[in-house]
Amino acid sequence: MAKILLVEDDNLVRDMLMQVLQRASHEVEAAANGEEATELLKKIQPDIMVTDIIMPKKSGITLISEVKNKHPNMEIIAISGGGRLDPTGYLDLSESLGASVSFEKPVDKSALLMAIDLLLHGKKES
Known about the structure:
The protein is an alpha/beta fold and 126 residues long. It has helices at 11-23, 34-40, 60-70, 87-96, 109-125; strands at 3-7, 27-31, 48-52, 75-80, 101-104. It has a 5-stranded parallel beta sheet, with helices on both faces. Helix 1 (11-23) links the parallel strand 1 and strand 2. Helix 2 packs parallel to helix 3 (60-70). The longest helix is centred in the last third of the chain and has 17 residues, at 109-125. It is globular and about 35 Å long.
């Protein structure tokens, strides 16, 4: 089980991902944008952050950069539908800033859960 911070501005996507993660026995805190996530990170210490890239108030790119500066060992999974651009550009950038894994939307639920398990297993090994 992991403590996961889920950052997603789309209510339907956030609710769906929360259900998927909770059904897999993960503890989930959710934020609707990067600013809310920043505030939550002052109170909680998640094992993994799953964040959208294109969001109002503070983008996932900015959030990833800030989180990696303050919490260099936190695992980050980036997700993006790309907005008006091809999502692969955003996802490549997110990985260059420190995201461990990235997924295009719609997110493959089993692949997301597998990535979380692999990241958790890797942490326990080191």
